[in-house]
Structure formats: structure tokens, C-alpha cells
Amino acid sequence: MKVLIHDLFQYLLETTDSAPEAIVGFSLSASPRLGDFLADLDPNQSLDWNSRDFRGLPELRDHVLAQAGLTGHCTPADVLITAGAAEANYLAIMQLLQPGDRIVIEAPGWPQAEVLAKAKGAEIVKVHRLEAEGWRLPLDRLAEAVTPGTRMVFLTNPNNPTGDLLSGSEVAEVVRIADRAGAWLLVDEVYAGLEWTGPRAPAVAGLYARGITTGSVSKALGLQGLRTGWIISPDAGLMRDALILRENSSEIMNIMGEVIAEIALRPARYAASLARARREGANNLAQMNAWLADQDRLSWVPPKAGLIGLARLADGMDSAAFARFLLKPPYRTFLMPGPAYDLPNHIRLGVGGGAEVRLHDGLDRLSQALRDWPLPKVSP
Ligand SMILES: Cc1ncc(COP(=O)(O)O)c(C=O)c1O
């Protein structure tokens, strides 16, 4: 079956030309400028491919292991550079799943796994994270869902969209659950590095023979436009299959993405960029929490990690209609409505973008729209 559009992308497609004046939902850190890298770039850099390794620049793959805490646990041969975490997930899912295979995913979660699994004709089993449980991943329900013969488990840690974070011991338990069933375990770590309440969780590629870690420079470093990410797994067969599919999709990496990502991930530079992203993200999150505390028609479980979280609208408020109302004058403000995550009563709020996004401006407009939204009529 062909790959079908998801509500999240449908909304982005419909609203890209709406020219909002404010965004309350930035999902990545402030993006550096090209000029920030010029001093480290070589004007003689060839714009041919890297001519050294089909898996990606060796020094970049070293940095990828280092930032994931995998140096000494995995080798550079276990890393393939891809066009973002999106391509990394794509390669793993498309090569591992066959029609009828069972994949266990979380809900709410990053929609990509469900979209691709549907196209593959896989059996999709959802494990629900509940707001009443603080959006925690319920490990008991996960264990029930991952039955023997389950082909794959796909999770995000930190979670998109709730901002929940699995601890090291929870990740170890998820590994045990996957291992009992012989399932592949893919953990998308695209938001790693932005933990607010605990340490970064260990990467599953270092814990499990069928563990797959995906990530990229898009979120914490704000380098989404480089389209540079990775897949890491100790399984040589999977890495070869991923390389073969990439050869037949994007073929090789874009050289500027690889070169700039390599500079961005050099340890000293990475540490400084991450410190700044964490400072700015924490400031925006504090501002968001303070603002939410004053709202009558909105409440949320603050994200434990990452730059996004879900806020609940007052009962009876339709999220999709409200998002479109907010996009119109006089508010002209963009946010992602809940149907993108099958949650019609929630909206997605973001604290990315650093100081540049002037979060307070978007929040003022959102407060106004919340006040102006007509209350449902109460029958006498
Ligand atoms: C959980 C998750 N995975 C993957 C992606 C895609 O990221 P990338 O830009 O690295 O392809 C996103 C982007 O929003 C995401 O939130």
C-alpha cells in the first residue's frame, strides 16, 4: 500500500502559507546561522560526496557515538548517517517490517511509525499513555502488548509529544520486555540532551543486540535544515539493510550536512551549544509554566524533557477549530492542534526557539483567543 498522509502533516501543509505573526509551539532550539560555521569550513571543500565512507564521515560517526554515550559500547561501523532521524526511522521500519508483522507503538507518539507500518500492512498495537498517569509509558501494558513473535517496538525517548522521559531503569525494563519476545526495539532519541528532570537515558543500541537508536542534529542543536541524523545498532545485518535502502532513496549523504554536523558535534562545541539550548529551553519552559498556572481554560503536565508538551483545553473546546480560530486575525498565531495525535481536546505547546521567538507575544495572543472563544451554551 502507498504511504498515506497523516493529520499532523496535513495541518502543516494547509497552514504553511498562513503567515502567522507568532508561533506557540517551536519544537527545536534556536537555529544557528551559516556564518557561525564559516571559520571552521574549508573553502576548498569538494561538493562531491565525502569519498571516504558510504556510512558517513568517520569522525562524524565518532561524535555521534560520543554524544549518545556509546563510545566503547558500539563502534563506528554500527552507525549510519542519514537524512535526519526521519530517514533513520524510515530505513529501519521499512527493512524490518513485513506485511502481517506486529509492531507495538505508543499513543500519543511520533506518527511516522504508524504511517509506515500501515503502508507495510503490519499489525499495529498501541500502548496508551494516559494524561491521568502523567503521560508515563505504562510498562505493564507494554509487557502485555509485546507478545512472543512481536517484530518491533517503536518508542520515542524523550517522548514526542508529551515530553515524558523514561529513566535508565525503565529503559532497561523495556529492553527486557522486547528481549522476551525477540522483538527489535527502536528508540527515537531525537530530543535527547534536553532533559529537565533527570539524566539522559541510556541509548538502547548499547544495551541490546536488537536495539536501534535513532537521532539527529535537528532538535537540541536546532540544525534541522542540515537533514543530518543517524541510526545506530550493533546488528550488522540491519545496518547493511539500512545502507542498501538508503542507497535506493537518498543514496549518499549531502556533503554540507555531514561537514557542518561534524563541526557542530565536536565535543567542546557540542557542550557549549547544548548548554545554551538547555538554558534557553529551561527559561522558555519556566515562562510557559507560569503562564499556564494563570489559565482557566488550559492545563498541562509539564514536559520532563524535550521542547514540547500537550495542554488540555476546557471541556467542550474543539482543538482543531480553536487552532484555526487562533490562526486568523487578530491573533495570527500558530500551534499544532491535538487531532495530529488523536487528542481532539488538547493542543501542542512548544518552548523551543530560544529568546528570538518572543514566547510572551504568542502567549498573550493565545490568552486573548482563549478568552474570546465562545463558551458552549449550558442548557437550563
Ligand atoms: C520524535 C521525532 N522523530 C523524528 C523527527 C524528525 O527529525 P529529523 O529532522 O531529524 O528528521 C522528529 C521531528 O519533529 C521527531 O519529533
Can you lay out the helices and strands and say which pair or pack?
Blueprint: H1 7-15, E1 22-23, H2 58-67, E2 79-82, H3 84-96, E3 102-107, H4 112-120, E4 123-128, H5 139-145, E5 152-156, H6 168-181, E6 184-188, E7 211-216, E8 229-232, H7 236-247, H8 255-264, H9 267-293, E9 298-300, E10 308-313, H10 319-327, E11 333-334, E12 336-337, E13 346-350, H11 359-372
Parallel strand pairs: 1-11, 3-4, 3-5, 5-6, 6-7
Antiparallel strand pairs: 2-8, 7-8, 9-10, 10-13, 12-13
Helix pairs in contact: 2-8, 3-4, 3-7
Could you provide a short overview of the structure?
With 380 residues, this protein is α/β, with parallel strands linked by helices. The protein is built from 11 helices and 13 strands.
